[in-house]
């Protein structure tokens, strides 16, 4: 038996993402880590057949702006989107209000998906150090890129949600 510790695990089915439109909203703080996470998410979306032209990427200053930035993109003329991915990196050492931002952004993103009635994938890394953040973005040799999980989660949740609407 193989043990999967990190990542979204084995998917139930080979999802077809070729008709999906996905919005990615990312913060610009900690850009090395952010760039790697976005790349991982986009590569995974494309591996499910999501067309590059159907992936819209938009940025906000910092993670605190993610919930509102995600709402703005979702309601913009760029949509409608089947799912959104909100990506940010909070590093405790760099912010006195780490706990406040982490908690409020987590709650706001959870609530947003019910308000929008569409999946909003939680791509917020909350790390104690920059090394941890780099290791969660696949930047460190042999480490796992969580952005890939978020891409896979977006496709799975979009397809499950769309099937429920029809
Ligand atoms: C202010 C701040 C700090 C200190 N650290 C981070 C961080 O590690 N990651 C991040 O995404 N954003 C950080 N910010 C910016 C806030 O999220 C926000 O952009 C500002 O407080 C303006 O509302």
From TrEMBL:
Homopentamer. One of its GO terms (molecular function) is 6,7-dimethyl-8-ribityllumazine synthase activity. Keywords: Riboflavin biosynthesis, Transferase. It catalyses: (2S)-2-hydroxy-3-oxobutyl phosphate + 5-amino-6-(D-ribitylamino)uracil = 6,7-dimethyl-8-(1-D-ribityl)lumazine + phosphate + 2 H2O + H(+). Its EC number is 2.5.1.78. Catalyzes the formation of 6,7-dimethyl-8-ribityllumazine by condensation of 5-amino-6-(D-ribitylamino)uracil with 3,4-dihydroxy-2-butanone 4-phosphate. This is the penultimate step in the biosynthesis of riboflavin. Belongs to the DMRL synthase family. Pathway: Cofactor biosynthesis; riboflavin biosynthesis; riboflavin from 2-hydroxy-3-oxobutyl phosphate and 5-amino-6-(D-ribitylamino)uracil: step 1/2. This is 6,7-dimethyl-8-ribityllumazine synthase. One of its GO terms (cellular component) is riboflavin synthase complex. It comes from Geotrichum candidum. InterPro entries: LS (IPR034964), LS/RS (IPR002180), LS/RS_sf (IPR036467).
């Amino acid at each position: 038996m193989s043990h999967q510790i990190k990542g979204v695990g084995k998917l139930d089915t080979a999802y077809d993402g070729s008709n999906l439109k996905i919005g990615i909203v990312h913060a610009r703080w900690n850009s090395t880590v952010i760039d790697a996470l976005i790349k991982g998410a986009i590569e995974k979306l494309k591996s499910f057949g999501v067309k590059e032209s159907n992936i819209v990427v938009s940025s906000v200053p910092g993670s605190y702006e993610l919930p509102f930035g995600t709402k703005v993109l979702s309601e913009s003329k760029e949509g409608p989107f089947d799912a959104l991915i909100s990506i940010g990196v909070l590093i405790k050492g760099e912010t006195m209000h780490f706990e406040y931002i982490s908690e409020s952004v987590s709650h706001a993103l959870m609530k947003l998906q019910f308000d929008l009635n569409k999946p909003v994938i939680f791509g917020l890394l909350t790390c104690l150090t920059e090394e941890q953040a780099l290791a969660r973005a696949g930047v460190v040799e042999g480490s796992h890129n969580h952005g890939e999980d978020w891409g896979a989660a977006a496709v799975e949740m979009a397809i499950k949600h769309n099937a429920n609407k029809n």
